[in-house]
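COURSE: Structural Biology Practicum
ASSIGNMENT: Worksheet 4, Part C
STUDENT ID: 0417
INSTRUCTIONS: Below are two proteins. For each, the amino acid sequence is given first, followed by its structure token string. Answer the questions at the end about the second protein only.

PROTEIN I
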Amino acid sequence: MLLSVGTDPVLPALDLPRTRIAAHHAYGTGVYLIRPDGHVGWAGGSAEGLAGYARRVGLAERVGGETAGARMAGSSGTG
């Protein structure tokens, strides 16, 4: 699942469910890829870098391409 918290980013064309929620002041904003086991697989301030991560972890067949105009504000995760 792609989770967008308090932001409305341009997301890559991943064939995954998407959810947008309002930011909570304790958690801030960002974009998160939630793995099927419920853990965060990727996190960033924007969606830049998400498509590349998805390719590296085997979601390449589900990636339609990274969209232009996204800016990376930082990322973390396993990749």
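PROTEIN II
(use this one for the questions)
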Amino acid sequence: MSAHALPWLIVTALSLILVAGALIVRRMRARDASRLSETVSAHERALVDQRVEHEDVAAKRAREHDAAIEAERSRVEALQLRLAQRPSWERKSLHDLVKACESLGVDAVIATNVVFLHETSGKTPFVTEIDHVVLTERGCLIIESKNWSGAVVDGVPFNDSQPVLRSIVQQSRERGAPTLTPPFAVHISPRRTKEKHLGQLSVRIHSHDQSPVQQVRSQSRRLAALLASRKIASPFFTTGVYYSNSTATVTHAPTFERDGSTTYVMSTPGELERVLRLLLKPGRNVVNRSEIERISEIFRGLHADMCIVGSAGTVADC
């Protein structure tokens, strides 16, 4: 090989090496691009699958939510039809309300069995039942009526003067249960059996959220939310619990106060009239007549029993 040919051989070899290197780099880039494309495609498919799955889950939850609402609406309608027959204890409490309004000369609209569906965002809807709502231009009152027989203690601590009653209640509660504090109601009544002389006592303890006082306060908040959803400014609702059974022995605190609001507890027509008289005190905010009419129209749409007392109607409407 001549000395002149050697440089050309070196150049040729280098050229071949460069070409081979370029081909290798191109193949590597093509392979990486293919892998990247596959990764992107897989990621896009995963996103599509996730979106489809999310939409399916959301659609399923929406169907379940709609089904729950429809089921509750059906329950409300069935309950409204049943309550339209007006149980005897509600006739008694309604009668006492009408008599109290007549005695005080109050023009009032009394709605009985106000039943509606209460919906809270993200929670299962449930039925709210209000026994009585009294609407007057001087104020509004929500009544939780109880026809309990036997002995009732509402919000009054058991002391040494009631050792038997205190013992019965203590034995009816779980060992180590905390002392009862208001709001609470204890209902003691004979348990019905076929042989009367073998009858036992039934002791029911309703504390905190299950107490009649707390129930009526919750009803007030839910009714205000219902009216707000109908674009109606809710008036202030005074709340009360009325033990309407005249044969019961009821011991109760006159009021329960918390968070700046008062709930009245009553067990006689005289006490019911006293609370209604509070609505007539001078200086109270007057409720607009048009607001009362709009609220009454909503109650009629809920199939509540409507009773109008005074100049706007007759007691025969009750």
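ANSWER KEY EXCERPT:
Q1: The first strand starts at residue 108 and ends at 118.
Q2: Helices lie at 5-83, 88-104, 163-172, 212-229, 269-279, 289-301.
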